[in-house]
Structure formats: structure tokens, C-alpha cells
Amino acid sequence: MAGQVSDYSTRDIADLLGVEPEAVRRYASTAELDPDRDKGDRYSLSFQDMVLIRTAIELASAGVPHQRVHQSLRRLREQLPTGRPLAAVRISTDGAELIVQDGNTVWSPESGQVILGLATPSQQTRVTSLDRRRAKAVERQSSEMSAEEWYELGCVLIERLPEQALQAFRSAVGLNPNHAEAHVNAGFVLQSRHENEQAEAAYRLALEADSSCAIAAYNLGVVLEDQRRPEEALSAYALALEADPDMPDAHFNLSRLSEEMGDRATALQHLRAYSRLLRAPRAT
Predict the structure, then answer these.
(1) CA–CA gap between residue 255 and residue 90 (Å, rounded)
(2) 3-state class of 167 per DSSP?
(3) What does the pLDDT average to over 135-141?
(4) Fewer CB within 10 A of the terminal residue: the chain, N end or C end?
(5) What is the value of pTM for the model shown?
């Protein structure tokens, strides 16, 4: 992989992640890494190794047993397509369950089953819930519905009936082309169907409607990466951070892409920001 360099020492990674060197060695074993060794028989780890060690540390900090972390990472390696690195996906917990997210696909590495209803358009996107009675009433009065009502109906349908949700979001933007959230959610449905060119267009329309829509810029970056356009993806993630400097995933993806392109200084800058945001207490 271009820009991949294996010369982070155990101490380098320990300092960056805020743990003891012995913990780095232990977690390197947990993550099933096969690190290089220098002439002094010391670990020489890559950026991807560092991301995996960070993942193992986060899982352990969340109370996941060591053996379970080890088994999940091993199974995940087997489940990912050939050439897809573990560091390219996100691993987290939902209660007692380990969850992997790769783009808009979410699954359990332990069971291998896809999980529905977790890959939402974004925590930053306002998703309005309607009760069933109101949704039915809206459907009966579709000719009189406003753009906002179409958007709300789409939000109700997006998990159960994504095709109908897409039509609702398109109706919303037909009435109000500047409805950024409807463009974003339409893009999300298209992206989940791997219709990346149409999803890209939807996210760009969202940004035309609202240039400060961080999730539109972030999702655009993901779609551009899926289309193997990393330089454009970098710009999209940077735009997302201009709108929301505290978006961890944008920092993470910028860090990963920068490392792949050989820009280690930028990669470390964003990795530090990502780690800082994960350690920061969450507002309640």
C-alpha cells in the first residue's frame, strides 16, 4: 500500500495512545499483528497496526474480555474482502455486542449477521419520528403534504421501507430544493444500495443547499473513497471538519488516507484529534 511505513516503535505508539509500552505489546498480540522487528529485536509497527491496537484498547476499556476481542478480530479478518484492512472499518460495542461498521454496512463479527437499523444517516442529521397514526394520515393527504412532511414520512420509512423513503425524500426536495437533510437522507438510501454516483449527486446537492452540513460532506467523502477517488475524499472530509471540527470519524478517515498517501505528519495530527475526541467526556 502506498505510503505504508513500518517504523513506529512500541514507545511511539504508547505515547500517542496514552498507555504503557507493555500494553502496546500485549494488545499487538490481541490484534493478531505480525510486526516487523529491527536489529535490536524491537517491534517496528505500521500505522495500520497502531489503529488496530487502539481498537483493541477501546474494546478492553469497554469491558470486552481479552479472549473475546482476540476471537472477534480473527473472525473479522476472515469476513473482510481480500485486501480490505481491519483498520479500514470501525469496531465498537452496543451493550454486550461487538459491532463492525464498513461504510453503511453494520454487522456482528461474532455471528457474521448484518444488523439492521444501526447504520443511520448520522447522529448529526435530525431524524423526526412520527407515530403510526400520523404517518397514515399523512399518506392519505399526500397531495397536500409540505416538503417537511414528506421528509418526516421518509424518516419514518427509512429503516423498514427504504424504497418508499427515497421517494418521500425526493418529493421533499421537489417541493424544496434547499432541504439539505432530505438530500442527505436520499443520498444515504442510495449509498446503502451502492448507487454511489447518485448518492454523490445527492450529497453535493445537500452541500449546495447548506455548505455547513458536516454529515453531507463526510458521507460524500465515504462515497468518493468507494469510487477510488482518495484526493477528492480528503477534500470532502476536510470540509466536514470545517463545519464540525469535533467529528471523530472525519479525523479518523483523514488520518488513514493521509498515511496511505505518505503524509505522516497530517496522519498523526488527525489521529491525535480522533483519540482526544474519543477520550473526551460526552455531554449528557
Answers:
(1) 14
(2) helix
(3) 44
(4) C
(5) 0.62
Distance of CA 234 to the CA centre of its chain: 14
CA distances from 128 to 80, 152, 158 (A): 34, 6, 11
DSSP string, 124-156: SS------HHHHHHHHHTGGG--HHHHHHHHHH
Mean pLDDT of 63-68: 78
**Nearest to 47, CA basis, from 280, 278, 265:** 265
Q: Please give the mean pLDDT across all residues of the chain.
A: 77
Phi, psi of 124 (to 5 degrees): -85, -15
What are the Cα distances from residue 57, in Å, to 20, 26, 48, 52, 92?
11, 10, 14, 9, 11
Please give the pLDDT value at position 125. Answer: 38
Residue 257 predicted with pLDDT over 80: yes
CA atoms of 270 and 284, how far apart (whole Å): 25
With vertex at residue 210, the alpha carbon angle to CA 153 and CA 239, rounded to the nearest 5 degrees, is 120
- The Cα-based distances of 68 to 55, 60, 65, 74, 115 in angstroms read 13, 10, 5, 10, 19
pLDDT in tens, 168-206: 999 999 999 999 999 999 999 999 888 999 999 999 999
Say how far apart CA 194 and CA 159 lie, in whole Å.
16
CB 203 within 8 A of CB 187: yes
